[in-house]
């Protein structure tokens, strides 16, 4: 499955916001309004995970090559993952919520 196939609009299952596809060449993996995600990938972009639990934004991580990422924790299975912050797009991530996550910056 290509990124173009995966880059589709959706309705957030957490806040019911209508989310448009990314306009910066990537694909969405979380809601820009509430920052919640859905546990859908085994490997980034494959959409092969059966869990489908909602993933709560719990913190931030700074990757030296990818920049700031949101840490998400699955409310169903407990999996912890990271997603790049969406910027330079038609619907960028909510900056106030990003700032509120800065109280919990993760380090490896």
| Largest sheet data | 5 strands, mixed
Structural class determined from secondary elements: mainly beta
Series of H and E elements: HEEEEEEHE
Number of helices: 2
Assembly type: single chain
Number of strands: 7
Runs in which pLDDT lies below 50 for 5 or more consecutive residues are none
Distance between the termini: 31 Å
Provide the residue-averaged pLDDT. 88
Beta-strand fraction estimate: 25-35%
How much helicity do the residues have? 10-25%
Radius of gyration over all CA atoms, rounded: 13 Å
In short:
The chain is mostly beta strands and 108 residues long. The chain has helices at 3-6, 95-101, and strands at residues 10-11, 18-19, 37-38, 54-63, 67-74, 80-84, 105-106. The protein has one domain (3-106).
Structure characterization notes:
This protein is mainly beta. Helix content is 10%, strand content 29%. It has one domain (3-106).
Question: How are the secondary structure elements laid out?
Answer:
Elements: H1 3-6, E1 10-11, E2 18-19, E3 37-38, E4 54-63, E5 67-74, E6 80-84, H2 95-101, E7 105-106
Parallel strand pairs: 4-7
Antiparallel strand pairs: 1-2, 3-4, 4-5, 5-6
Task: Please supply descriptive tags for the structure shown above.
108 residues, mainly beta, 2 helices, globular
């Amino acid at each position: 499955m290509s990124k173009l196939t995966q880059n589709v609009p959706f309705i957030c299952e957490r806040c019911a916001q209508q989310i448009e596809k990314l306009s910066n060449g990537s694909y969405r993996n979380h809601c820009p309004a509430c920052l919640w995600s859905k546990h859908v990938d085994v490997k980034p972009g494959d959409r092969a995970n059966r869990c489908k639990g909602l993933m709560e934004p719990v913190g931030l991580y700074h990757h030296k090559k990818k920049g700031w990422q949101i840490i998400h924790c699955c409310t169903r299975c407990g999996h912890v993952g990271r997603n790049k912050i969406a910027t330079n797009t038609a619907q960028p991530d909510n900056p106030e919520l990003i700032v509120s996550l800065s109280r919990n910056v993760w380090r490896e």
